[in-house]
Amino acid sequence: MATDYKIKVQNVTKEYELFKTQSDKLKAFFALNRKPVPHFWSLMGISLEIKAGETMGLIGVNGSGKSTLSNIISGIIPQTTGIVDVRGDTSIIAIGAGLRGNLTGLENIRLKALMQGLTNEEIDQLMDDIVSFADIGDFLYQPVKSYSSGMKSRLGFSIAVHVNPDILIIDEALSVGDDTFYQKCVDKITEFKEEGKTIIFVSHSLKQIEMLCDRVAWIHYGTLKQVGPTADVVKNYKSFVKWFKNLDKKEKKHFQRRMKEAQKAFDIDAYQAEAVAVRQEANPEEKNVAAKVKHDFYGSVISEKMSGGNRVLTFAVLALFVLFCWVNVSGHSLSEVVTNPTNLIHPTEHVSVVGSYDKSK
Ligand SMILES: Nc1ncnc2c1ncn2[C@@H]1O[C@H](COP(=O)(O)OP(=O)(O)OP(=O)(O)O)[C@@H](O)[C@H]1O
């Protein structure tokens, strides 16, 4: 792989546990002896480099993993394994990400710009431009949860392009706006390209991809099917779509089920062993390849899962917290409760009269 990249992802995977309900998820968090939960690998090992100043398109059918990958690159979600290296003094902005539903449009502008490192004075100077580009009228003063998807996209896009990011990630933002807004966005993206910014552009519109992207990565059910010049990848993708459309209903379902089953059955240990074998074969003299690959896989990853020990610790801290609250409410001192725990269920007189009042007054 070349070294002059702006963004590099290497052996990136993303695993989800498919809990049926939120309460199942919560129970599993505290359970010491967890029942097995079905797993799903949204990404099964993506390696890709994007050069500075390049516009890279991400294409693929619904659910193939495009948003998962762009969210990992923008740091919104962590990868399960692999390296994500974003180089240089970089600020990334992903259009749809980070809008808070309970805040108004104006509040969201300030919040996102502050998170991007702008000062309040800088935001004040940009505010008129952001508001006028978004063009959503009085909705600016309404909570974002009341916006249509087109309005959210207008606001997100406007903030993103005005805070002057080094890397811009555009995930399906152009598909929901009307024609006027679409043209404004295309002009802005073209301006960004001319300024040499790096852009990741996720879209189902092959016309937009062909118009804007230098190279394209085709993500196919969690794998990188092809990466290369736009015309080549789009041509192959179109052939796949044509092939798929020609299948009858039963064949389509069968194909989709087979792909999803493969994503459930993905074996991360086998994938890691394969990476070791590939690296060793490329450089037979290299020592400690297994340990180095292990480090590449897990060294920069923040684990979303808690170890058994950490779960016990969290549980103990919570239990202590509840106990201290209870001691406090009981009105006894800690030493009184320690010497006689039944004090916990016999509050002091002081506590028992709290909230009562003297009817004779
Ligand atoms: N939080 C989650 N929990 C479980 N599965 C998830 C989660 N988020 C995404 N997935 C699954 O990961 C897969 C990839 O989703 P992703 O949104 O990245 O696809 P996409 O290519 O962007 O799709 P689309 O073109 O429809 O936007 C899908 O099968 C999706 O159901």
From TrEMBL:
By sequence similarity, the record places it as follows: Belongs to the ABC transporter superfamily.
Q: Where are the transmembrane segments?
A: 312-329
Q: Which InterPro entries match?
A: AAA+_ATPase (IPR003593), ABC_transporter-like_ATP-bd (IPR003439), ABC_transporter-like_CS (IPR017871), ABC_transpr_TagH-like (IPR015860), Bact_Polysacc_Export_ATP-bd (IPR050683), P-loop_NTPase (IPR027417)
Ranked from the top, the taxonomy reads: Bacteria, Bacillati, Bacillota, Bacilli, Lactobacillales
One GO CC term, this protein: membrane
Q: Which GO molecular function annotations are given, in alphabetical order?
A: ABC-type transporter activity; ATP binding; ATP hydrolysis activity
CDD domains attached here? ABC_KpsT_Wzt
Ranges for domain ABC transporter: 7-246
Enumerate the PROSITE patterns for this protein: ABC_TRANSPORTER_1, ABC_TRANSPORTER_2
Keyword list, A-Z:
ATP-binding, Cell membrane, Membrane, Nucleotide-binding, Translocase, Transmembrane, Transmembrane helix, Transport
Give the protein name, as stated in the record.
ABC-type polysaccharide polyol phosphate transport system, ATPase component
* Pfam families in alphabetical order: ABC_tran
Q: Which domain of life is it from?
A: Bacteria
In its UniProt entry, the species of origin is given as: Secundilactobacillus similis DSM 23365 = JCM 2765
